From TrEMBL:
The gene is LOC114253277. One of its GO terms (molecular function) is lysophospholipid acyltransferase activity. Pathway: Lipid metabolism; phospholipid metabolism; Phospholipid metabolism. This is Lysophospholipid acyltransferase 7. It is a multi-pass membrane protein. The chain crosses the membrane at residues 12-31, 43-71, 78-96, 116-134, 356-381, 443-461. It is found in: Membrane. Coiled coil: none annotated. Belongs to the membrane-bound acyltransferase family. InterPro entries: LPLAT_7/PORCN-like (IPR049941), MBOAT_fam (IPR004299).
Length: 481
């Protein structure tokens, strides 16, 4: 028992802090004034940072403070660019601190720094994006109601103190989820958190956490990561070595599910991210329809509304386990961060053909500089190229048993691909990745290439034959008439 606690002490401390944040939520939600609530949330956030990081707390505190000052010191036209390069520049320094004579920080501090980067850069892009949207808005777009809101429907321009509170508020500080400044501001000024069933949402979110933790402990002890680097593993049957990453990725998923679910529960408990369901709320973004009408909702209407916490949902666990394609899997995995990458990088990158590469590159360096992150994340497009072809040719329009069979095959291949890539993500360094991939002869890259080449040939075959079939049908129709 003592050995288990010693081995997992960091995870136990982190888990305890997340659970404490959940417990604090109802008390925090009930605070009487907005100013008291803001300062209490910020103080709790700073306490969490210092508790987790010790002396290394200087990094997230200093980087966020300078990033906030950069936003205010820059013009609204360029604040997002200045802040982006500063925050990611500091992230480089933070992770390479030992090269500059400083000690490296813990993994937990790294997670906090990652969240700080998302918040500070995200709010800078919100400020700039809202300014651009309002500047370019035409009168007819104001008069005509749209089915869906634009990304920005009003100016977002927080003052220095609100930027400070947003950056350091304890909700979501340890593991996420990322939420916009707009969501944070709504939490204090709109009546939704007072009327939503926060307790029910918290219990509903938390109920699966013991299962995730139990499965993680079981998988990680039966199939430990380090085993893939041993001679004993290399002497096992090739099928065993090929399938071992399934166990590694299964353990990793349970750990992520537990952490992300607990992080969502912190939001649920405090009431942050609660919006009426008619807003068609989306992870990270919040309401996508009729936001300005929601802001004008009366106390009585708010009291009688039905609420959800979709805005702060990070993981669609069932989706992660069941979706057929890698493309869909990417959409339901860590959805809040996916939203940030899409809004900050993909949509705003000026060179259209390089958008996806820019998004993947930023995602990689946000996670870290290890080779494993590049192997895992940057190889996704190569699999997607092949997958998209087979999806359109055979699965998209299939029905009945045929669709089920093809869906299972695609699910298996997607799961195997993710597991193979996850092995690199977990092993991190190039030498360790090379040991495992060599033990299975780097086979999956060859499989990808063969799938892609066959897919291209099949796609070309279908294209060349489709017009002939169409012409023959037309001729038959004319003859019949």
């Amino acid at each position: 028992m003592i050995g288990f606690i010693t081995k997992n002490i960091n995870d136990i401390i982190y888990l305890s802090l997340l659970l404490s944040s959940v417990v604090v939520g109802p008390y925090y939600r009930s605070l009487s004034t907005i100013l008291l609530k803001k300062w209490t949330g910020t103080l709790l956030g700073l306490i969490l940072i210092v508790t987790v990081s010790g002396y290394s707390a200087i990094h997230p505190i200093l980087s966020a403070t300078i990033g906030i000052l950069a936003i205010k010191a820059s013009t609204v036209r360029f604040c997002h660019i200045v802040t982006f390069f500063f925050m990611f520049g500091y992230l480089f320094f933070f992770r390479l601190a030992d090269k500059f004579g400083f000690s490296l920080s813990s993994g937990q501090t790294n997670l906090i720094e990652m969240i700080i980067v998302l918040r500070v850069v995200g709010v800078a892009f919100e400020i700039n994006g809202s300014w651009l949207a309002m500047k370019n808005k035409k009168e007819e777009s104001i008069k005509n109601e749209k089915e869906k809101d634009d990304d920005f429907v009003e100016i977002i321009n927080p003052d220095l103190s609100d930027l400070f509170h947003y950056s350091f508020n304890y909700i979501g500080l340890l593991t996420g989820p990322y939420y916009r400044y707009r969501t944070f501001d709504d939490y204090f000024y709109l009546p939704f958190s007072k009327n939503a069933d926060c307790f029910g949402a918290t219990i509903n979110t938390l109920k699966a956490v013991p299962l995730y933790i139990s499965l993680y402990l079981a998988f990680s002890n039966i199939w430990p990561l380090e085993y893939v680097l041993t001679e004993e593993h290399n002497s096992r049957h090739i099928i065993y070595r090929m399938l071992y990453p399934w166990a590694l990725f299964a353990a990793f998923r349970q750990r992520i599910y537990a952490g992300m679910t607990l992080a969502e529960s912190v939001c649920n408990s405090a009431g942050l991210g609660a919006y009426p369901v008619q807003g068609r709320n989306r992870t990270g973004h919040g309401p996508t329809v009729g936001y300005m009408k929601l802001k004008q909702m009366s106390e009585e209407e708010a009291k009688n509304s039905l609420y959800d916490f979709n805005t702060v949902e990070s993981m669609d666990v069932w989706g992660c386990e069941s979706v057929v394609t890698l493309r869909d899997s990417m959409k339901v995995w860590n959805k809040a961060v996916q939203y940030w990458v899409a809004m900050v990088v993909y949509k705003r990158f000026p060179i259209k053909p390089l958008k996806i590469h820019a998004a993947l590159f930023i995602s990689v360096i946000w996670h870290g500089f290890h080779a494993g992150y590049f192997f895992c994340i940057y190889f996704c497009p190569f699999y997607l190229m092949a997958e998209d072809i087979y999806y359109k040719l055979y699965y998209k329009n299939a029905t009945g048993m045929k669709r089920n069979v093809i869906g299972f095959v695609m699910w298996f291949l997607r799961s195997h691909s993710e597991s193979y890539q996850a092995a690199a993500f977990l092993l991190l360094t190039f030498d360790r990745i090379w040991i495992y991939y060599s033990s299975v002869y780097h086979y999956w890259y060859g499989v990808w290439l063969v799938f892609l080449l066959i897919g291209i040939a099949l796609n070309q075959f279908h294209k060349t034959n489709r017009p002939k079939i169409s012409t023959e049908k037309n001729v038959d129709q004319i003859k019949t008439e």
